[in-house]
Amino acid sequence: MASAKKQNTPAAARRAKLEEARRKERARERRSRIITITAAVVVVAGLVAGGGYLMNEADEQDKAETAAKSSPVEGEKSWEKLTQEHVEKKVDYPMNPPVGGDHNPVWMNCDADVYTKEIPKENAVHSLEHGAVWVTYTSKASPADVKKLEEKVEATPYSLMSPVEDQGSPLMLSAWGKQLAVKSASDARVAQFFTKYVQGPQTPEPGAACSGGIAK
C-alpha cells in the first residue's frame, strides 16, 4: 500500500500543478474580459458623448444658417422688377456694379472663380441670374481684405470675384437684385450675404450652370 501511495504521489502532484495552472489561466481570462469590457464601455461612452456633441454642433450650425437666411442683411440695397433680356451690346446699368437687368447671353464662369482684372459687367450679370454672388473691390481695398475674400470665393461654388475700380465703395457684394458695401472682409454680414444669396431665393434661374461660360 505504501508503494501505491508513492507511485500516486507524482501523478497527484502533476494534477495539482495542472489544476493550479488552469485556475490561473481562468483568472487571467476573467481579468482580460473585464479589461476589454471596461475599455469597450469607455469607447462607447466616448462615442455617444462625441456623437451628441457633434449633433449639437450640427444643430447649432443649422439654426445659425436658418437665421442668416431668414434675417435681412443690415445695410443691403434691393432692386425689383429687373429685366432679363439677352443682348449683344453694352448695357447702361442704374447701379454699379450691376445687380440685374439685360445681359449678355453668355455668363462669366462663377464656380469659385477669382479674376484679377475687370470683367464685362454684362456677362457677370448673367452669372447673378444663375444664383452667383459677385465680390468686387477697388484699389483702395486693403490687400488683407482682398486676400480673405479671395479665399472665401475660392471655397464657394456659385461665386466670383473681380476688381471694379469705379464702384462707390472699396468692398462690395452683389447678388441678383441685392447689394452690400462693407468696410472689412471680417464683417459678419459677408458670411450672411453668402449664406443668404448663393443660390438663394432671389435667383431667377436656380441650378443653372456656373461653368462652361467665359473665363477671362
UniProtKB/TrEMBL annotation:
Which InterPro entries has this protein been placed in? DUF3105
Composition bias type Basic and acidic residues, residue spans: 16-28
> Which stretches does the entry tag as region Disordered?
1-30
Bilayer-spanning residue ranges: 34-55
Is Membrane a UniProt keyword of this protein?
A: yes
Report the superkingdom from the record. Answer: Bacteria
Q: Name one Pfam family in it.
A: DUF3105
Record keywords: Membrane, Transmembrane, Transmembrane helix
Q: What's the name of the protein?
A: DUF3105 domain-containing protein
Q: Where is the composition biased (Polar residues)?
A: 1-10
